[in-house]
Amino acid sequence: MKSLQDYTIVIRPDDNGTFVAYVPAISGCHAWGQTADAARSELANVFDMIQQEYMEAGKALPEDVELLVANAS
């Protein structure tokens, strides 16, 4: 069984002073928090719920994706 640590996680500041955390490989796996740590903690809860939904549907979680990072110049 896969865990959140098997996935690339992106955490970035949001426009309103909070942070957003998400797993690009899993649609809908995203969360917000007042701090980066709070967003990551909430993301773990969201991941657990999504993982349970996949298990109940008899589906495997998707494979991780590779992110390409481009420098803004």
From TrEMBL:
Source domain of life: Bacteria
Domain HicB-like antitoxin of toxin-antitoxin system: 7-65
Name this protein carries in UniProt: Type II toxin-antitoxin system HicB family antitoxin
Source organism of the structure: Stenomitos frigidus ULC18
InterPro entries: HicB-like (IPR031807), TTHA1013/TTHA0281-like (IPR035069)
